[in-house]
Specification:
10 strands, 2 domains, 41% helix, 14% strand, globular, D-Maltodextrin-Binding Protein, domain 2, single chain
Length: 409
């Protein structure tokens, strides 16, 4: 197979790694501290789609400049929207601007939930602009923003397509009526690997177990996610615990295992989306990563759920309370909840679409993807994954600190 050239997104991540790794670590530590302080003050929980939340405080809203300023600032994770690989343009965003006249400043600057929160927390707390009108955050972090009064309530009159939200995503405890969030995509914490290098190193081009990932032949050539819930959930499942319902002792056993693999040098790095570039360059052979990322890397890379189970999560679009282009942001949300548009993006990113009708629309876009288990998973695939247990604020702080201590942050 021919290796795909280093993508613009991955090249940017390489540059970011080289220039600011120490700053990223500093931000993650600050993020944990911020989460701890805010959770303690607001009682925000942690966890997956079952995240618990009490009534959110009324946010202090910024003045909406949407009528006079026809643009919107959107912060998202890398590799999370459709891209023209030749031009680097985003086709659905271009179509949105052509149709509405609203320009989108789209940035891929969410690399890790805690890290991103650390960058903007001070401005949020002081009511200052963070220069972003849409942010995409995982359930547990979205819950924290809502609890803290950092999220703006959505005007559903501007988002009629919100009615297309799939039933499985309705009634979540951290936002029961979806007053503040709309899911962007769901996905799996899973294995990813370079097929040729894995074959050369382990004699197989398929990764199915954590035992393989821990094989000494891969020493220094694997990375794990800095998202605690994904990495720790996969380790706990391998140890025989249920990541959806575990004890403190089971969590500590998983931390001990993680610490052992890091201390031995088995693990090269614990990171956010940075692992994508390391896979592309060949510095890393195998990872605990996010399912859709590997598909975007091309056929030279594999993806699979561990035989003992992967992790299932959801990322959500949210408008910060300090956003200055709220109506424009809601117009963007409405556009992406059109089933055809949702299917177009899903065909590229290959994550689970939360939009009802996207599967039917996919038949007219790429029929080969209609039964793709990474976009439209059946019950058997879902049964081999876990949603991380809902945590109390005290548990969240304690578990995050233990995790950060183990990975050296």
């Amino acid at each position: 197979m021919t290796k795909r050239p280093l993508s613009p997104q991955a090249a940017a991540i390489v540059r970011m790694q080289q220039a600011s790794l120490s700053r990223r670590r500093l931000l993650q530590v600050a993020g944990i501290t911020g989460v701890a302080a805010t959770a303690a003050a607001c009682g925000a929980g942690g966890g997956g789609s079952s995240e618990s939340s009490s009534a959110a405080p009324s946010p202090t809203m910024a003045t909406d400049m949407s009528d006079s300023e026809k643009f919107v600032n959107w912060a998202n994770w890398p590799l999370y929207i459709d891209v023209n690989d030749e031009t680097g343009e985003y086709p659905t965003l271009k179509a949105f601007t052509d149709g509405t006249g609203i320009a989108v400043n789209y940035t891929e600057d969410v690399n890790d939930n805690n890290e991103f929160f650390a960058k903007v927390r001070a401005q949020l707390e002081s009511g200052q602009s963070i220069d972003r009108d849409i942010v995409v955050l995982t359930d547990w972090m979205a819950a924290l923003w809502i609890q803290s009064g950092f999220a703006a309530p959505l005007d559903k009159a501007i988002i009629p397509n919100a009615a297309n939200l799939a039933p499985a995503y309705q009634g979540v405890s951290f936002d029961p009526n979806r007053d503040y969030t709309l899911p962007w995509f769901s996905g799996f914490g899973a294995f990813g690997w370079n097929k040729a290098l894995l074959q050369e190193t382990l004699g197989t081009d398929t990764l199915t177990s954590l035992d393989q990932l821990w094989d000494p032949k891969l020493k220094g050539r694997i990375t794990l996610l800095s998202e605690m819930r994904d990495t720790m959930g996969i380790i706990m499942a391998w140890q025989g615990a249920d990541p959806s319902n575990f004890t403190d002792d089971q969590y500590q056993a998983a931390v001990a295992e993680l610490q052992s693999q890091i201390d031995s040098g088995q693990v090269r790095q614990v990171s956010g989306n940075d692992y994508v570039a390391a896979l592309e360059t060949g510095d890393v052979i195998a990872v605990i990563g996010w399912s859709g990322d590997m598909f975007q890397l091309g056929d030279d890379f594999g993806v699979g759920l561990p035989e003992t189970g992967g992790m299932l999560w959801t990322d959500n679009m949210l408008i910060p309370s300090v956003a200055t282009h709220k109506k424009n942001a809601e117009t963007v949300m409405n556009y992406y909840y059109d089933p055809v548009v949702a299917a177009e993006v899903a065909a590229y990113v290959q994550y689970i679409s939360p939009v009802a009708g996207a599967k039917e629309a996919m038949a007219g876009i790429d029929p080969s993807l209609v039964d793709n288990q990474w976009i439209f998973p059946d019950q058997a695939t879902l049964d081999n994954s876990y949603v991380f247990m809902t945590l109390t604020p005290e548990q969240d702080v304690a578990y995050q600190r233990e995790f950060q201590k183990a990975i050296g942050f």
